[in-house]
Design a protein that fits this description.
Layout lengths: L2 E4 L9 H17 L2 E4 L11 H14 L17 H14 L2 E4 L3 H11 L31 E4 L6 E5 L3 E5 L1 H4 L3 E4 L7 H11 L4 E5 L3 H13 L7 E5 L12 H4 L3 H6 L4 H11 L19
The structure holds glutamic acid and zinc ion (ZN).
Length: 294
């Protein structure tokens, strides 16, 4: 039995885009006989807030999306420090992990100066392309410095279940990966990859705004010694009828607002299905029936 996950970050309220992702996650899982793990991605200790986590859980319950794992007790990254430490020591055994004292701004600046082929899809990269400035400086790992791992050149290819064959070159796209930032917080790339490996997630379903992360996560997974790589499905983001991306007012309405306006859970899911180009017209859809949309 395979396992997929719904992995919201508690840095804001759920909106229609999350519902589209939930439809894909639960719909695909139910079709494929896979289980769904709920994972709260609160690795960003500055932006994550308990009240957002509470709201996310409440909204998912209200919508009727039931996770098979990770709901009770709630599975959150902030409780998994030991797992990431362990992954880090594993990485150190065979790869070059080093301390870095470049600020994000400096790393980005060098990116714009040295990059010959800026990447158009680099939408949610946390650090820009890092040029390896600190790679051989032998800096001590002291508080206030971040940690990176050396990324060797080479192509990562995978067969996306929605997009077909994809090839990426992490060394060119992001350079040496940030594992822990200078505040001591684990990065999304590292925490999510370590989690997916350790939790046995073998089907990753997410919006195509995260497509650029996949090559580097595959590389990291290999470096962590994961055997058997997960499958990936990157789905379209919210689209308005004309094919343009939804505007803030259309797409960013939080579920809280829709709920407050008296919209029912099935209507919200129905609207999201249309916005995600999964249904032609906004008929109510119950969470337990989303597999029918595929
Ligand atoms: N936590 C990420 C988000 O809320 C999702 C990460 C993923 O699916 O890999 O956008
Ligand atoms: Zn540096």
């Amino acid at each position: 039995m395979s396992l997929t996950r719904f992995a919201p970050s508690p840095t804001g309220y759920l909106h229609l885009g999350h519902v589209v992702n939930a439809i894909y996650v639960w719909g695909t899982a139910r079709r494929a006989g896979a289980r769904v793990l709920l994972r709260i991605e609160d690795h960003d200790r500055i932006r994550s807030r308990p009240e957002y986590e509470r709201a996310i859980l409440e909204d998912l319950d209200w919508l009727g999306f039931e996770a098979d794992e990770g709901r009770s007790p709630v599975l959150r990254q902030s409780d998994r420090h030991a797992v990431y430490e362990q992954a880090l020591s594993r990485l150190r055994r065979t790869h070059h992990v080093y301390a870095c004292d470049c600020s994000r701004k400096e790393a980005r600046l060098r990116h714009t100066q040295v990059s010959l082929q800026p990447h158009p899809l680099e939408a949610r990269v946390e650090e820009g392309r890092y040029d390896g400035h600190c790679r051989d400086r032998g800096l001590a790992e002291t508080p206030g410095r971040s940690l990176r791992v050396r990324i060797e050149p080479g192509v990562e290819s995978f067969q996306d279940l929605c997009l077909g064959p994809v090839s990426q070159s992490p060394a060119d796209q992001c350079g040496d990966l940030l594992l822990r930032d200078r505040h001591g917080h684990w990065t999304y790339q590292f925490a999510a990859t370590a989690d997916d490996a350790e939790q046995g997630v073998d089907l990753i379903i997410r919006g195509n705004d995260l497509l650029e992360s996949t090559g580097r996560q595959l590389r990291l997974a290999h470096m962590l010694g994961r055997s058997g790589m997960p499958k990936f499905l990157h789905h379209p983001l919210l689209m308005a009828a004309s094919g343009r991306k939804l505007s803030k007012s259309e797409g960013d309405a939080s579920l809280r607002e829709l709920r407050a306006a008296g919209v029912s859970p099935a209507s919200v899911i129905g609207r999201a299905a249309v916005a995600g180009a999964l249904a032609p017209d906004p008929r109510p859809v119950f969470a337990r029936d989303v597999a029918g949309l595929f």
